[in-house]
Design goal:
- By secondary structure, this protein is an alpha/beta fold.
- It has two domains: about 20-280, no CATH class; about 285-440, no CATH class.
- It contains 20 helices and five strands.
Length: about 450
């Protein structure tokens, strides 16, 4: 058997949507088309849940709808991670708007479509001033609710007493810059809308709006994340703009709180103040998980045009059913577990009947998703098996378990409580014990 692995790339085309994100994307499109502007939509999900896939399929769907003349919502994709070390993401975002404008040949072919470039240059210059002005940084810092240290506060008060005229001038310049950036961005989108309506007679200029799809903002530095959220709220919320910001809410809240040197609740308040509505990327249903893993494993292990042999057919069913039973539905993790299972089959195909395949799948999942727990199993499999069999029940003490095994499981506990079947290993006296099965899986993973 030749070993082949799945790639972990986000989907680009609706035909590849084997986990059926389509109904959610259709719902999201309807909500965006019905939203009043300005509007900021939070697309939430843990890492690997499919946020990037949803954004890309949403972008393709919006393009298709607009090109068919059935909609006037223009998608503009922006990957914040490409600029994760830059505090000022306003300019790269403006550049994404310009790229979308210039990529439409119908617009660029218009004889009078020359004002956009000059307007872009003015707005971009204003964005640079806005993001680097000292007074702006101080203002956004205070707007976010952070209190400066007493020493810094005394220094600021003393500076105000000694140079009141200078401070007034700085604040006046900052206020002018904020106003110019907000109105300039609105005018930029207005020019784009006007040229688009002239290029496509099916559109009315007053109906044209822009869906700015921001991905991976939570992967930027805390300073960049906070500055971008504040910029979105203060400068870029124009009457034609709908922002869709995809992020891991928990990670974003922690990053904001760390940047503000404040409590997690303060970080949550900042995020909630920016997002007007939120939706979580849905988990695939158990049947979709079973069907997906069967298709992928059959494609990797055999000729998909032929029916798999009975032994392989049973193996595919066991793998998919075990993932569904354990409520493992994160697409990225599923793909990695498929790759791990392919490696296991490749190395152990001659003695496959010796193993409890559900146990192997559970151990692969633990090694990939919860390496700390997997290492606890390695150290004392019998004791850990007994203890975790009671997970989620009143008999289980999380504090005692953490202390006994020297691991931190508190953050993952609510999720693991819903995945109790992950810890329900089969006992079969005719097959190798749990320790031997753990050793086999450990040899396949980086946690050996």
């Amino acid at each position: 058997m030749s070993t082949r692995f799945l790639s972990d790339q986000p989907l680009e085309h609706a035909a590849e949507d084997e986990l059926n994100f389509a109904p959610f994307i259709e719902l999201l499109q309807r909500e965006l088309e019905g939203a009043e502007t300005p509007f900021v939509y939070g697309l939430l999900g843990e890492s690997g849940a499919g946020r990037t896939t949803v954004l890309r399929l949403l972008e393709a769907r919006l393009k298709q709808t607009r090109e068919a003349g059935a909609g006037a919502l223009v998608p503009i994709a922006f990957n914040a991670r490409l600029y994760q070390n830059d505090v000022n993401l306003i300019y790269p975002l403006l550049y994404a708007v310009r790229q979308a404008y210039q990529s439409d040949r119908r617009i660029t072919a218009l004889s009078g479509a020359r004002g956009f470039g000059g307007m872009f240059a003015r707005v971009a210059a204003t964005s640079a001033l806005a993001a680097t002005d000292v007074a702006l940084r101080g203002a956004t810092h205070n707007v976010a609710g952070a209190a400066p240290p007493l020493k810094d506060l005394r220094e600021q008060l003393e500076a105000v007493r000694q140079q009141p005229d200078n401070l007034e001038g700085i604040l006046r310049a900052w206020a002018d810059t904020v106003s110019q950036l907000h109105s300039g961005f609105e005018a930029l989108l207005g020019t784009y809308a006007g040229d688009l309506a002239r290029a496509d007679p099916r559109l009315k200029v007053e109906d044209v709006r822009f869906a700015i799809l921001v991905d991976d903002l939570d992967r930027c530095s805390p300073e960049t994340l906070l500055a971008t959220l504040e910029a979105t709220r203060q400068f870029l919320c124009g009457r034609r703009a709908i922002f869709v910001i995809a992020l891991n809410a928990e990670r974003a809240v922690q990053a904001i709180a760390r940047q503000l040197r404040a409590a997690a609740d303060d970080g949550r308040q900042v995020l909630e103040a920016t997002l007007h509505a939120t939706a979580a990327v849905p988990e695939p249903a158990p049947e979709q998980v079973r069907q997906f893993v069967r298709q992928q494993l059959q494609r990797l292990l055999a000729d998909p045009r032929l029916a798999p042999p009975p032994a392989l057919d049973r193996t595919l069913d066991i793998f998919g059913q075990t993932l569904a039973d354990c409520r493992i539905a994160n697409p990225r993790k599923i793909k990695r577990l498929i790759n791990g299972f392919v490696r296991f089959l490749d190395r152990n195909q001659a003695q496959l009947e010796q193993f409890s395949l559900p146990n192997i799948v559970r151990l692969l999942a633990l090694a990939e998703m919860e390496p700390g727990l997997f290492q606890a199993y390695q150290a004392d499999p019998e004791r850990v098996s007994v203890e975790l069999a009671a997970l989620g029940s009143p008999d289980f003490s999380l504090a005692a378990f953490e202390q006994a095994h020297g691991i931190w499981a508190r953050a993952a506990y609510p999720r693991l409580s819903l995945m109790r079947k992950l810890f329900q290993f089969e006992a079969d006296p005719d097959r190798p014990g749990l320790r031997q099965q753990i050793d086999v899986v450990a040899a396949l993973t980086r946690w050996s």
